[in-house]
User: Fold this.
Amino acid sequence: NAGVTQTPKFRVLKTGQSMTLLCAQDMNHEYMYWYRQDPGMGLRLIHYSVGEGTTAKGEVPDGYNVSRLKKQNFLLGLESAAPSQTSVYFCASSVVWSGANVLTFGAGSRLTVL
Amino acid sequence: GQNIDQPTEMTATEGAIVQINCTYQTSGFNGLFWYQQHAGEAPTFLSYNVLDGLEEKGRFSSFLSRSKGYSYLLLKELQMKDSASYLCASMDSNYQLIWGAGTKLIIKP
Assistant:
């Protein structure tokens, strides 16, 4: 099984450009998440989804949009990239196991906005 | 507010024991997680505690005290491959994870 796959792994954008990060999971998980990870800070939740066709805002949603048209895919869009969005982005999916919501992460996508 | 505190960096010697502490303050509590993250890689799940006490899993153990808002991860018989960041996360009343900034563990020979 591939687990959680993110594409692309690296991307450089100019300010104002748009792009979409793709996340796919093959574990039939209901929940999916997009996080960003910046130096000296904990993972911060951007948006999440509790099932196909549903999305919700996390801690830092501004400047991002998401879609979950199929259960296995969760897309993160940047409509007009800003240098503050330079970060490493992680997608994750989860299943509740013995009461715990255990996340499985993708390998990450490193985005630089110039 | 919600807050997770853990040391920024720790250094230990190969073969030794190290304890990484974490204190948390979240809106409600539904469990405490520890994840390992090697440089440039994804976080991977290590442990989950929801009841007070020590959970042992091989060389790694995790402890929780809900009354003190405190947890620690204990790593025994340290190996060079244990060099990584260790992330503490508390699950709040909405079952969302609040993450600490991580503790970078450096293992020296």
Summary: Residues 16 and 31 of chain B are 28 Å apart (CA to CA).
